[in-house]
Amino acid sequence: MKSLVPSTSSRNPGSAAQPAGSTGPTGSVLSVRDLTVTFADPRGGTPVTAVHGLSFDLSPGEVLGLVGESGSGKSTVGLAVLGLHDPRTTTVTGSIRLDGRELVGAEESVLRGVRGGRAALVFQDALTSLSPFHGVGAQLTEMYRLHHPEAGRAEARRRAAAMLDRVGIPAARSGDYPHQFSGGMRQRVMIAMALMNDPQVLIADEPTTALDARVQRQVLDLLGELQREHGTAVLLVSHDLGVVAGTTDRTLVMRGGVEVESAPTAELLASPREPYTRALVGAALRLDSVPGTALPTVDDPSPSRTFRPRTAEQPERWLVEVEDLSVHFPGRRRLPSLRAEPVRAVEGVGLRIAPGETLGLVGESGSGKSTTSRVLAGLQRPTGGRVRYDGQDATRPDRELRRRLSREIQLVFQDPYASLNPRRTIAQTLDTPLRLHTSLDGAQRRERSAELLEQVGLPAGHLDRYPHEFSGGQRQRIGIARALAPEPRLIIADEPVSALDVSVQAQVLNLLMELRERLGVAFLFVSHDLAVVRHFCDRVAVMHRGRLVESTDRERLFSAPHTEYTRELLAAVH
Amino acid sequence: MLSFALRRTLQAFAVLLAVSAAAFALFYAAPADPARAACGPRCDSGQVAAVRQSMGLDQPLLTQYTDYLVGVVAGRDIGDVDGSVIHCDAPCLGYSYRLHQPVTEALVDHLPVTLSLTAGALAVLLVLGLGTGFVSALRHGGRTDRLLSGFTLVGASVQIYFLGYVAQWALVYSTGLLPLPSYTPPGEDLAAWAGGMLLPWIVLGFVNSAVFARLSRSQLLETMNEEYVRTARGKGLGRLRAHLKYTSRGAAGPLVQLLGLEAGVLLGGAVITETVFGLNGIGRFAAEAVGGQDLPAVVGAVLLAACFVVLFVALADLAVAWLDPRIRLS
User: Fold this and answer.
1) For A157-182, how does the pLDDT look when each residue is reduced to its tens digit (9 = 90+)?
2) A249/A254 Cα distance (integer angstroms)
3) Does A379 map to a domain?
4) Looking at CA atoms only, how far is residue B94 from chain A in angstroms?
5) Does B2 touch chain A (CB under 8 A)?
6) Residue numbers in A near B238 (CB within 8 A)
């Protein structure tokens, strides 16, 4: 979408109601100078400055990427432009000029005209950002009527239908509710709604982060097309350099509320000036990294360490063997008398994991990969098929085997915020598995907990802290320490790095690779991210709609994919 | 929808059957003898036996219960204490030997009072509870919020019989601001009806509004942070309009469910309120029936109350599903 179409060239007559105005002194449609946003602490603590002295310009039709990790203040910028912060707790200083008009300190009535009119927002998760109570057509109609009070209901409806049609949603579905659409369709609705009033500036905050790679590509392409058609300037906020790389003209990197570096995107990616940018660029996994090598991080931008090359051999005895596994969930019943058609989440899946081996399980949302891993973890009873663990039938384990499985198979979860009990200290969290699975006494357990914490790169002194005192990456380390506590032979990791920022993701992957080499643990690594899977896994199994479509060595999968579906998945990775 | 209605109706029947059976069985487990109670203190054992036979109390419990159920569906003939036979039309909830009147008839006589009381009290509860909840949520943490929270807490912690007497003394006897609580059928004199019921409405509504205010405050506060509310503001909607259109809708589910339950419970009879204000509704009827060991009247009142609860809970579920299209009725 790299284009510089003048913003006035394709405006439709509907926007003439608003003063087009002259662009700012620098010819930019959005001009931010020395922006500082400070949040007061509701409990009376020291205020937090989320953005500090930020300046940038956005030319008509330009796409500017705003990149940073969580907590860098990038989303705050987008909300500040529309004055959406709570004025009672937030102080905004500096200058934000939209089309020459100052927005900082502007009247609420002025801001209401800007919001959704001359500047519009697209948020990350369309499912939670669109109203669940209104049909999508009605939501677009409302958007139009708010800014065109003179237009009748019929006119607004007609425009909403046309806009939905433009983003590929048939008119027949305009009465449907957001939850009845797929993730990609919902994000299209969100984009259509944002463009309803032909805004001069579109602020897209992680617009595709919640989507699968394939859908992500489609939505970004659509956004690019529309941006060119309407000549809208876009501020694309993202943590993902991959998204920014293919989409933006210029990129501004933020860290801790301040600008690190700003340059044309191609230049920034090819030769980043600042070490932080270099680390961000290096940490973003692409499909050309050398698998199994240590990844560059912010602290260590050029790591020298390599891990032992891993070869997949035919083992004497498989650690896990799954044959013809199926899991069905009861479907929705239409009438009390009729039998419901079950939802076939997993159908006829076979997998094998050798001791010490890492198997990647890949697929999009709804492919059944998490359900499969839940069966192995003993959290989901299979409808059919057989599961063998270390040569024993584990489909219906007896008491003794169940004990052994609960010790030797451990889990690492996706969300490091939700998977740690906020009311328990780290020592308490680590103590439970040790008490259940070892014969250590209290003092020994504490000693072992300290050891585990150091093993995952956290100081033993942090044992008595609570989860909220740690960052996302640190919490994921704690989750890994908890999984390591009973000395497992298999760790099932369900999207363990998907919720983390790129640079933190690199740190956690480095840690996992190191632990794997040192401890010889086998992994079932569930992920939708092919680049991560390629870097971390020995063999890869691809699932699609509950079935296994391909299962082979990493090298073979990525160099010569067998099935059409795998090829499509690979093509979507930027 | 059809399947929902069908399932709910079946469920309601099962609940009512269980409630009636339990009420029947419990009353028989009590040491009191309904035949002796019906006959009066001067009866000798022979007379009591005769009464027992004419009332059908000498039959096995199961037979009595099935007779009762048949009566509910088809009506039946019942023997009075003096041996005369009365025909009781369906839905026959038995015959009160204390009042010498079919229970259904007696309940229908008392129902208008309870209906009036409930309707008005619910209106007061809604206005007070939702109003304070909404204002509290908008001004959360501030002085208004604390003041309103304190106000509703008083409501929750004060007993109706206390507040009722105090209010009656202050507003009726001392100042004469309100007429003495009484029931006039609204068809006869609408102003007298409203005037006579005003004090009971306010007291019953206020006391019950505390839970509602607290729930609506917390629901609204939670929903205010929803992303779709932020999107609504981002579309250009003002703060108040965004909250009225989006936040309220998101917060409504649990409130509607509580309201449904509250309506069902109140329609079953507000014993204390009716007693304090001398209103002759279902609640007082039931209390007197228990005192007079009037088994059929008690079982009838219990069944009616259960009916109301089941009905209004189902209505609330329907309303919630209508408010939130993500909810499937099942």
Assistant:
1) 999 999 999 999 998 899 999 998 88
2) 17
3) yes
4) 34
5) yes
6) 108, 112
